[in-house]
Amino acid sequence: MTIRNKPYSLPLTEIEQTAFCSTEDDLPAKPLSEEMKVNVRWQNIPSDYLHLTPEELDNRIHEVRNKLGNKVTVLGHHYQREEVIKYADFQGDSFLLSKEAAALPDVEYIVFCGVHFMAETACILADDSQKVILPNITAGCSMADMAPMEDVDDAWADLKNILPEENSVIPLTYMNSIAGIKALCGRNNGAVCTSSNAKKVMEWAYDQGERVLFLPDQHLGRNTALELGIPLDKMILWNPFKVLGGNTPEQIKESKIILWQGHCSVHTRFTTQQIETARNRYPQVNVVVHPECPMETVQAADMVGSTEFIRKVINEGESGSVWAVGTEISLVNRLARQNPDKTVFCLDPVSCPCSTMYRIHPAYLLWVLDCINEEQLVNEITVSAEVKSSANIALRRMLDLA
Length: 402
Ligand code: SF4
Description:
Elements: H1 12-15, H2 32-35, H3 54-68, E1 72-77, H4 82-85, E2 90-92, H5 94-102, E3 109-113, H6 116-125, E4 131-133, H7 142-145, H8 149-162, E5 169-174, H9 179-187, E6 191-193, H10 198-208, E7 211-215, H11 218-227, E8 235-238, H12 249-254, E9 257-260, H13 272-281, E10 286-289, H14 295-300, E11 303-304, H15 307-315, E12 322-326, H16 329-338, E13 343-346, H17 362-373, H18 385-401
Parallel strand pairs: 1-2, 1-3, 3-4, 5-6, 5-7, 7-9, 8-9, 10-11, 10-12, 12-13
Helix pairs in contact: 3-17, 5-6, 9-18
Bound molecules: iron/sulfur cluster (SF4).
């Protein structure tokens, strides 16, 4: 059992999260050398790639993709910037892309334009012969980084000490977590979920056991548990820097859900105040937010759902309708462009892209594609066989429920 508090520390990805925030509505593409002036960690690549203009990059990416043919597939998460997602053979949220990755046994290389945990998930689901590549190795996720393996292993050991009975606690992890946590869930009768299926997976978990340990996003966990009717006084927070997560053994035994104290730095920017401002400006506005937003924001909104849900509801909205959206700005700007007959805007007046997603600049995409073409493997994401096999169990449980 952990016996003392640990010093509090913020992941680097969290510290860097607001690096690209701007008061401009759009963030136009610049050569990578220009963007590198923003003070975050960037992966170094050969200097010839740094000064290429967006047009030069576009021509060269098309050229190399034509040479590579079906050997390569490019997957693009909805939060990718326009200049990158346009090359994606498949676009989706982490759930759809994970299914896509599992259904591509013939492709040799999966280039994942997203963040590290997504590429890891693709690797877990892919065939052993397939290579998964992340164009910029510094594209992590601050939420995933809030649940390092060592802290989660400690928490699990503490919980099992207090709740030794089989299935007294079912571990569920959001897709946005490292592979080791997915493996822990696979080994301990748990599963993975995404924001599209969290409710279904959590219902399944309560059929398997008494309570849930939900990692690493406290907000998705709390919002989903509330939907299932779990009262707030049966939810406890696990602070990894404190002994027993800051709880007493009694509180743990009385809980129905233990929420890991992690969050998404992008979605926690959305507030009830912003919703009020949007309603004052457009009385007929529809407010739709992502479930990674805090509970108060979700409860004040008109609708809540995954990125796929948000896309669908806006795309299918009536002409002339007005939408205030609480999710990542690259997706909101794209939805605004794709729906010129509607008013679509981000709840947050400051444009704050996910700073790690944003680091997949087209120059990195070109670089990894050129390397594949030259039979040079760079930025391959791998997962050990042991972790892969247990994580696969947790992922397959989720996919089977879908
Ligand atoms: S939007 Fe949030 S959860 Fe998604 S990758 Fe960025 S930091 Fe992670």
